[in-house]
Each structure stands twice: as structure tokens, then as C-alpha cells.
Amino acid sequence: MGIVAGLDSSTESTRIVVCDADTGAVLRQGYAPHPTTSEGDPQAWLMSLGEAAAGGLLEGVQAIGVSAQQQGMLTLDAGGVLVRPALLGNDKRMQPSAADLTDALGGRAAWAQAVGSVPQAGQTVAKLRWLARNEPEAARRTAAVLQPHDWLVWQLLGRPARRTTDRGDASATGYWSAATGSWRPDLVELALGRQVTLPDVLAPAEPAGHTPEGLLISAGTGETMAAAFGLGVGLGDAVVSLGASGSVFAVHHEALVDPTGTITSFADATGMHLPVVHTLNAVRVLRGTAELLGTDLAGLSELALRSSPGAYGLVLLPYLEGERTPHLPHTAGTLAGLRRESMKPEHLARAAFEGMLCGLADALDVLRSRGVQVRRVFLLGAAAELPAVQAVAPQLFGAQVVVPQPADYAALGAARQAAWALGVQHGTLSPRQPPLWPAGAGQAFEPGEDMPVGQAVRQQYTTVREQTHPGAFQ
After folding, report:
1. Residue 148 domain-assigned (yes or no)
2. 3-state secondary structure 165-233
């Protein structure tokens, strides 16, 4: 069918993959860094894109898909000129604004019912409230609001009158409902004090348009949705991301409304849904324990494997930064079960891995309790390569664990979307069925006969959690 490209503009860099539209085979790749700040110059993203595409990388490409960092906000005046530098998702100044908005609508349950999520500092809706309160002149000049992927698509198309987004990125704003598939302008007004122009939300295979040179640009999407599409996850699959904090999402056939706000109801890039549960503590638990024991992550993994399941009764509740799941924002971590025989480095190391993974298993159980099927778990992040993680995770998650080979999955997802839009345009693909690219290679780990062992470790952990924080999940 041709050649397509996917570009991913993350917080740190632009990555481009050029793929065969039929097979998904990667033909060429490009990379360029860009500044990492809490406020960004979008022109730097364009310069990075140009550097990544240098040397004829895009020669012969017929369609491009765009993935970009989520929850950034670009404010435009009536003439389409940036009002101020972009506010990015990692900007923590908006936390009071998020709390303020939560109360303004009547609490967490009201927001969950309205848009499937409770305001967080990263969301665009919180940034709008912060702008109104802290930069009223900039707020007054703001006529339109975009996210990074929306702005990049608009630039590639030559800044047309029509601006677009997709349902995946729209669902991360805090003022678009994945359940109804529509914007909530009233929530924009609640945050900013007045209405602004919002982009048109495109269907998954619908193109955003064509460049002046005739190159098709697909709808694009946010990084999480693009990575899921690049991985090829489907119903029955969950993805656990191991960063300093953690996230768990799964593919589901409908949006979930969670009155507690524990589940954030995102849409995906295919027409399905991605309910997400976040934890505040993941690899930071391992790093903290490694520092305490005078080693690194590899050494901590080696130590943990010298211990046995249950760590001789040692249990670490990994709430080092407070916790979102369960909702314990002001708590601290707990080390329980100290006995003379358990006070050894290898048992503390094992307790750290089990505590981190039990916390993520709790997040998985939040989704399972709402009818989300989890038969296979994709484990992402550098820590997924640690032998102790690979040994312990299948037991505690109660499912096959897949550790994919490192790849630019967000860029691959963007390229797959471009191939889909191109195929629909040519009449070779249905708008309801994306191209069937092969799943990425990876290692699979089965719980096997160790499932009862994992259940016993989970029970030990749950008992300590309930004794320390009674009713935390009620």
C-alpha cells in the first residue's frame, strides 16, 4: 500500500519511525532531543521534528501520524498566535487549582460522573483554572486551546482554519467525556471563566487533512493511546508502566464511571476505552531500598532472589510519597513483620519488590472489580528487565506477564494510525478495523504452579494493609 511515518514528540525528544504500511516493518528511524522544562516553546518541537527528519528520512512517505506528550496546554489568541509558552503535563503548580475545581463542581463523584475523571494537576482543565487565577491578562486573550499533538498536526497542515484532535487526547483534558463522546464547554467556563474554541474530535481512522504537498496527516493521539496501539493490546490485555510512579490501564469496551475517582476513564485510538489507575509509588520504592542497602537496582534484584516468597514475613507498604490507589495522600510507607530472622538485606530487598508489585496488583484489582478482563499484562519500563520483577510479577498479578523488547511504541502506534487512515482513503481498509500489524517481540512469563504462592503473598500484604489503613479501598 505504501510507506507511512509515525512521529512521537515526547517531553524529551522527537522520535520518527518510517514503516511499510502493509506489514508494519520499520524501514528507517530518526531522533532529535528538545528542551525539557515545565514551560515549553512549541517552536522547539518543530525544530526537533526537522532535525529528526533530516537526511531524507521522510522520502516516499504517503501519510504521517502524530503522537505527543499528553496534558500540555497551548493557548492561542483570536489570530492563532500563542498567548504564552506552553504549559506541560509535568507542571505541579496546578495542584491547588485541581483541588479548587474538584470542590467547585461538588466533589470527586460529580467530576467522575461528568467526564470520567477527577481534576489532577496535569490536566488541561486545571491549567485553565491556574491561568485564570494567576495570569488574568493571558486568560483574557485566550480564544482557543490545544494540546501538543493538536498543535503539531495543525502546523503540519499549514495552520488551516479547522483545528482537530482525537478522542484519546481529548479524554485527558478533563472537559471531554469518554462516555458521551462530547466536550463539556460548561467545565471549560467553570475553569477559565468563559468559553473558548475547542478542536473538532476526529474518529480513529479519520484524517485530519492533507499538507499543501498532498501528504495525508491522520488524526494523531496522545502518547499513552499511541503506545497501546503500537503494542497491539486488545481486550483482555492490561499494561503496567513502571516509572518512579506507576500506572495500570486496560482495554475495555465501555467507559467506566468511578465515583471515587480512582479510575480515570480515557478513550483509546481505536474506538475502545482505556480505564487507567495510577499509583504514586513504583520504581522509587526500589531505588530508595537500594540506596538504603548500598546497592543499585541490579544488586537489589540479585539480593531479592536470595530470599523466598513472603520475605520471611517482612511486608513493605510502599506508600513513600503518599498514595493515590488507595487514596492515602498524607500517609507514609510501613515496614511490618520485623523479626530477628527477617532482618537481613535479602529479605528487605524481596519485600521492596513484593510491596511495589502488590501495590500495582491492587490497582489491577480495581479494574477487575469493575468487570475489566485481565488475562495478559504487558510490563513496561526499564525495571521490567530486572530478574526479580520478572520472577515475582506473574505470581502477584495472577496472569501471563509480557516484557516487550524496547521499541518506540508510541511512534509505531502513530505510524499504524497513519496506515489505517491511508488504507481507508484508498478503500483497502475499513474504518472499523485497523491494519493487522504483527505484535512486537518480547518475553512471556507464566505464573504456572506458583499462582498459590503469589496468592499467599498477596494475602500477607493485604492483611498488613488493612490493619494499618482499615477500609482504605472502601
Report:
1. yes
2. EEHHHHCCCCCEECCCCEECHHHHHHHHCCCCECCEEECCCCEEEECCCCCEEECCEEHHHHHHHHHCC
